[in-house]
Write a structure and sequence with these properties.
binds zinc ion, mainly alpha, 4 helices, about 100 residues
C-alpha cells in the first residue's frame, strides 16, 4: 500500500485478548507487516480473542470453529473494503509514530 489515506481520528488502540488474532489469524501491520499491532481502523468486527473470552465457557469445539470461520470472513471483508479505499486496517507503533 504505497499510497494510502490516513486520518488518526479514525483509529483506536487494537485490543485483543492474548493477541489471539495475531497468533491465529497471522495478521500484521497493513503498511510494514510487523505483527506488533498498535492501532486498528474503527468500526472493525470484534477482536477474536475478546469474543472467545466472552463466549468461551459456553462453546464446544465445533462452535468455536464456527465462530472462528465467521470471524475470519468478517475481518477479511473489513480488510478488503479498507484496502479498496486505501485505508490501512492495522498499524504498528513504528508506522503510527511516523505518521502522526
Ligand atoms: Zn508498520
Amino acid at each position: 500500500m504505497s499510497k494510502f489515506i490516513f486520518d488518526k481520528n479514525n483509529y483506536e488502540v487494537f485490543d485483543d485478548y492474548n493477541d489471539v488474532m495475531i497468533q491465529v489469524f497471522g495478521i500484521g501491520c497493513s503498511l510494514c507487516y510487523d505483527d506488533a499491532i498498535f492501532q486498528v481502523l474503527k468500526n472493525h468486527p470484534i477482536a477474536f480473542g475478546k469474543l472467545l473470552k466472552e463466549q468461551n465457557k459456553d462453546l464446544n469445539e465445533q462452535e468455536t470453529e464456527k465462530l472462528f470461520n465467521q470471524q475470519i470472513k468478517e475481518w477479511q471483508a473489513f480488510e478488503d473494503k479498507n484496502f479498496e479505499f486505501q485505508k490501512p486496517t492495522f498499524i504498528c507503533e513504528t508506522c503510527w509514530n511516523e505518521m502522526i
